[in-house]
């Protein structure tokens, strides 16, 4: 926000300048001498504070800000001990609603204009402004137009007094009885940094924390105020087992034994292909990893999908060269293919808006339906729903990016679930085929930790660390004891197979296909066709209510771990409150089930899971719990310092344009040499698109005894044998196909 | 006399009453003894507590639990926006230091002189707002398990008035404490102005 010098608290003395200019609006010049604590300045600051307090009510004991109020702090530090004003203060009606969520206490307002400036400059929703003059100056919304901004909660956080209040938090707690933990919001896939605060083991507030590469301190209202569900009354707090058609509360061992027993039975009678796992994008990376290991390494099924037919294929998300959010600021051009960022990834919208409006990056709005970015777009090119972006737009964007000299950032997600992902994938491919432009993709998927789940292998054909089944077969067989024989089905396929009676055990990891899958009828038939459903969930959703075994899991705020956002940034989420009931972490449930199926994960704490991921998953190599804890901004995978230990190769994403029907992309192939002219991996920072081969197998076999089943940790030998592309070359595709390489370099 | 002088001491005590027959009677209490708390009300019956949690914040034993809530506009519990929705003191923890009384911005919480507590289970030791709030006569509610004999609830706000404001006992000037249900504006203490 631009400085305006409204509150006058920063008046200073500048040598050679008459009067006392406010520091915030006075640019620094060469040889300037500024004095901040002379007698005159102190007297003036004291006077300013006395003025600010003329009409400020002394209701600190009932004010939500009391105890964390900048005005209180300033008064204590620089203010006069007593006021000389004995007159009656200005009175207004106590809080008036600006919107359903925001209340305004005009008596407390000191007219600093932080809220109005935020609404106009940052959020682009100028719905509040000053009215009247003199001591009647007040902030108000316009008549019959409430302050309904998706970002209105930020004004409450930046208000230096208790003038703007959140209805949600009002009178819930006082600052001194709040316990705070820094965490990331996992409502959408942006993962804004925040501080979750609890009082008496209840989460009461989430505040934005300034993480420069991600959220700049802002949160959207959905993330900020959507926290009540953690303590909702309808949380399932105990495990349940269906006995005689009724879900009955049972003990954990009973429920786990029942689930494991059924899985074992189905494995014996129908093989691993009769077991499918849906969901997993809700938890942490550790949860996703443990479930991937259970499903793929222990059970041996590849019918695993964390997306519910509403995202992009894993090959695309994991295969493209990934952009960082910061790339938008220095981009040559930004192309938004959909969805509307303000609806699905709100804080990314703030960053895109800033890039387009304040930093002058040309933005191409290619969403099928006009969205929030249209006013800031340099070019609006509506595409027909279901059709890829026109070649002229691609060319124009490429030319713009080339001229401006920066990467071309493509924000890609599903514009709507009614539309097949083909159009988006083909659009990405069209940009990927461009020459001489550094194309990077931000995949705007809608589920909280969907990128983490994809990276951990909760997708058909993939193993943890952005590795395909074929590429990682040897490596993971040695670490896990086995991987699925062939590529499995995605969510659509799983549901279709279930409807046909080919799935005998369906595990729902927080998934609710009845409500969430675009094809609700198919989901209904699928759930009716599955004889045994295991639900790992916190709520009895419509789908989970049909479960035969219900295993209650912990949720955000109750679990430690790491999450991965849409740019591949791994950050820690923190446990702030004790879990409700006897809810267990997902990863612990997975390892308990694995133990009952005869495999010992030997994982005792969540940090051990993180460390195992860092040692096993190639893309996450080196991202140990200790490192992620230390890293202020989280870490973006893959880690630069570990690039020498993993083989980074360019792997093209192929779009089978002519084959037409059905899905039209090809899994990232394991083999294939880097194309000629590609920069060496050890050279400049590795582009995100470059795939890394799993580290070649070490001689050690996966031992069977408990004492040594522990997978290698971060303490693995630093010099791993480097795999050249020649040794991993595989046969090219047998059929002739039109292949376009997504990765520019 | 020599060896009998010791008996003289004994004889001098003879007939004097030294032992109080507690629990039938209680020895007189110092005027400012810290005992069981009360939550005071204004003269019009409104609660003084505004649920600001300053008492809970200052409590060194962490025995006070307060939750505030929005005052119902049609039937306000206390003047202002907020009132104490939940107010609980755990007397197994309370050390009667009176810091809560000092911290209270509205003179809502003060202490009586009742200090005998006996409970048969831990939950009973937690006094709720209903039990702490003064009755309609402005006096502490005499709960069935409590032993009220003398004037333990006579001057519940004494300590607070003595130190008000700024702990200056020789306070001169306007009375700055608020009235109480059943008592009105209490007079200043001995040694203060207005006598």
Which features characterize this protein?
heterodimer, A: 745 residues, alpha/beta, Alpha-Beta Plaits, Rossmann fold, Dimethylsulfoxide Reductase, domain 2, 3 domains, 7-stranded mixed β-sheet, 5-stranded parallel β-sheet, 20 helices, 29 strands, 26% helix, 15% strand, globular, B: 195 residues, alpha+beta, 3-stranded antiparallel β-sheet, two-stranded antiparallel sheet, elongated
Question: According to CATH, what is the class of the largest domain in chain A?
Answer: Alpha Beta
Biggest sheet of chain B: strands, sense, closure? 3 strands, antiparallel
CATH class of the domain at 33-139 in chain B reads Alpha Beta
Which residues of chain B sit in consecutive blocks of at least 5 with pLDDT less than 50? none
User: Mean of the pLDDT scores of chain A?
Assistant: 85
Please state the overall shape of chain A, judged from the principal axes of the Cα atoms.
Answer: globular
Question: What is the structure about, briefly put?
Answer:
Chain A is α/β, with parallel strands linked by helices and 745 residues long. Helix content of chain A is 26%, strand content 15%.
List the SSEs and their pairings:
The complex is a heterodimer of chains A (745) and B (195).
Chain A: E1 13-14, E2 34-35, H1 39-52, H2 70-78, E3 96-97, E4 102-104, H3 114-122, E5 128-131, E6 138-141, H4 153-158, E7 164-166, E8 179-184, E9 193-199, E10 202-208, H5 221-225, E11 240-243, E12 246-249, H6 252-270, E13 275-279, H7 285-299, E14 304-305, H8 314-319, E15 333-338, H9 341-344, H10 346-358, E16 363-365, E17 379-380, H11 391-404, E18 408-412, H12 422-432, E19 439-443, H13 450-455, E20 462-463, E21 467-468, H14 473-480, H15 491-499, E22 505-509, H16 513-516, H17 520-529, E23 532-537, E24 549-552, E25 561-564, E26 569-573, H18 586-596, H19 606-616, H20 625-630, E27 635-636, E28 647-649, E29 691-693
Parallel strand pairs in A: 13-14, 13-22, 15-16, 15-18, 16-17, 18-19, 22-23, 23-24
Antiparallel strand pairs in A: 1-2, 3-4, 4-7, 5-6, 8-9, 9-10, 11-12, 11-24, 20-21, 25-26, 26-27, 28-29
Helix pairs in contact in A: 1-2, 6-18, 7-18, 7-19, 15-17
Chain B: H1 5-13, E1 37-39, H2 54-58, E2 64-70, E3 82-90, H3 99-103, E4 109-111, E5 126-127, H4 129-132, H5 158-163
Antiparallel strand pairs in B: 1-4, 2-3, 3-5
């Amino acid at each position: 926000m631009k400085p305006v010098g409204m509150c006058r608290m920063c008046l200073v003395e500048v040598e050679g300048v008459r009067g006392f200019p406010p520091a915030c609006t006075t640019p620094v010049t060469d040889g300037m001498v500024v004095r901040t604590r002379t007698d005159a300045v102190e007297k003036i600051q004291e006077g300013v504070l006395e003025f600010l307090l003329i009409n400020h009510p002394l209701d600190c004991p009932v004010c939500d800000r009391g105890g964390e109020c900048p005005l209180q702090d300033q008064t204590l530090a620089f203010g006069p001990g007593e006021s000389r004003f004995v007159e009656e203060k200005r009175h207004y009606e106590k809080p008036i609603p600006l919107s359903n969520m925001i209340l305004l206490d005009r008596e407390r307002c000191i007219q600093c204009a932080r809220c109005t400036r935020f609404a106009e400059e940052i959020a682009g929703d100028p719905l509040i402004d000053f009215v009247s003059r003199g001591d009647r100056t007040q902030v108000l919304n316009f008549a019959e137009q409430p302050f309904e901004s998706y970002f209105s909660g930020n004004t409450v956080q930046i208000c230096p007094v208790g003038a703007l209040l959140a209805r949600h938090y009002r009178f819930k707690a006082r600052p001194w009885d709040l316990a705070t933990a820094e965490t990331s919001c996992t409502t959408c896939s942006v993962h804004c940094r925040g501080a979750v605060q609890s009082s008496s083991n209840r989460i009461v507030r989430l505040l934005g924390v300034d993480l420069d590469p991600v959220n700049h301190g802002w949160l959207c209202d959905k993330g900020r105020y959507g926290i009540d569900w953690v303590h909702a009354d309808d949380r399932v707090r105990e495990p349940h087992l269906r006995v005689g058609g009724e879900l009955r509360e049972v003990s954990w061992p009973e429920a786990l034994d029942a689930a494991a027993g059924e899985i074992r039975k189905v494995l014996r009678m129908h093989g691993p292909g009769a077991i499918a796992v849906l969901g997993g994008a809700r938890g942490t990376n550790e949860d996703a990893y443990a479930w991937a290991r259970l499903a793929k390494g222990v059970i041996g099924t590849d019918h695993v999908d964390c997306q519910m037919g509403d995202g992009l294929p894993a090959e695309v998300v994991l295969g493209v060269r990934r952009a960082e959010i910061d790339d938008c600021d220095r981009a040559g051009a930004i192309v938004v293919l959909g969805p509307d960022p303000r609806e699905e990834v709100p804080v990314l919208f703030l960053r895109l808006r800033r890039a387009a409006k304040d930093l002058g990056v040309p933005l191409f709005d290619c969403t099928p339906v006009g969205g929030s970015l249209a006013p800031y777009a340099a070019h609006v090119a509506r595409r027909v729903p279901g059709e890829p972006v026109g070649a002229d737009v691609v060319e124009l964007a490429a030319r713009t990016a080339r001229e401006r000299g920066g990467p071309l950032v493509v924000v890609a997600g599903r514009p709507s679930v009614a539309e097949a992902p083909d159009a988006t994938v083909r659009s990405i491919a069209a940009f990927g085929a461009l020459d001489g432009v550094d194309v990077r993709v931000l995949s705007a998927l809608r589920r909280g930790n969907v990128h983490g789940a994809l990276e951990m292998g909760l997708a058909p054909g993939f193993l943890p660390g952005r590795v395909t089944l074929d590429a990682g077969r040897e490596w993971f067989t040695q670490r896990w004891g086995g991987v699925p024989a062939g590529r499995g089905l995605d969510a659509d396929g799983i549901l279709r197979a279930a409807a046909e009676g080919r799935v005998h055990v369906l595990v729902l990891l927080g998934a609710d296909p009845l409500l969430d899958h675009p094809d609700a009828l198919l989901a209904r038939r699928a759930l009716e066709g599955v004889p045994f459903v295991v639900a790992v969930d916190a709520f009895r959703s419509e789908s989970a209510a049909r479960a035969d075994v219900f295993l209650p899991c912990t949720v955000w705020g109750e679990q430690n771990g790491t999450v991965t956002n849409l740019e591949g940034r791994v950050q820690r989420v923190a446990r702030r409150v004790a879990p409700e009931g006897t809810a267990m972490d997902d990863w612990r449930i997975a390892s308990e089930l694995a133990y009952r199926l005869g495999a010992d994960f030997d994982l005792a704490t969540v940090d051990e899971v993180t460390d195992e991921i860092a040692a096993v998953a190639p893309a996450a190599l080196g991202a140990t719990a200790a490192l992620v804890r230390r890293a202020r901004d989280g870490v973006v995978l893959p880690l630069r310092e570990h690039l020498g230990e993993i083989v980074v190769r360019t792997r093209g994403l192929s779009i089978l344009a002519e084959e037409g029907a059905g899905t039209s992309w090809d899994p990232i192939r394991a083999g294939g040499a880097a194309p000629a002219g590609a920069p060496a991996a050890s050279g400049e920072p590795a582009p995100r698109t470059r795939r890394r081969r799993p580290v070649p197998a070490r001689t050690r076999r996966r031992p069977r005894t408990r004492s040594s089943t522990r997978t290698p940790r971060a303490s693995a030998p630093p010099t791993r044998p480097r795999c050249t592309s020649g040794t991993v070359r595989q046969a090219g595709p047998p059929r002739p196909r039109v292949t376009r390489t997504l990765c520019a370099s | 006399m020599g060896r009998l002088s010791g008996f003289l001491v004994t004889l001098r005590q003879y007939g004097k009453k030294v032992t109080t027959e507690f629990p039938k009677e209680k020895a007189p209490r110092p005027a400012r003894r810290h005992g069981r708390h009360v939550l005071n009300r204004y003269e019009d019956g409104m609660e003084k507590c505004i649920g600001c949690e300053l008492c809970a914040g200052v409590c060194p034993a962490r025995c006070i639990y307060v939750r505030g809530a929005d005052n119902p506009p049609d039937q306000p519990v206390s003047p202002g926006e907020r009132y104490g929705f939940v107010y609980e003191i755990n007397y197994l923890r309370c050390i009667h230091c009176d810091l809560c009384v000092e911290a209270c911005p509205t003179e809502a919480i003060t202490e009586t002189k009742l200090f005998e507590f006996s409970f048969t289970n831990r939950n009973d030791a937690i006094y709720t707002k209903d039990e702490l709030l003064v009755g309609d006569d402005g006096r502490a509610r005499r709960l069935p398990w409590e032993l009220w004999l003398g004037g333990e609830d006579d001057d519940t706000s004494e300590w607070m008035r003595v130190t008000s404001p700024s702990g200056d006992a020789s306070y001169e000037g306007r009375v700055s404490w608020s009235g109480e249900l059943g008592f009105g504006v209490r007079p200043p203490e001995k040694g203060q102005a207005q006598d």
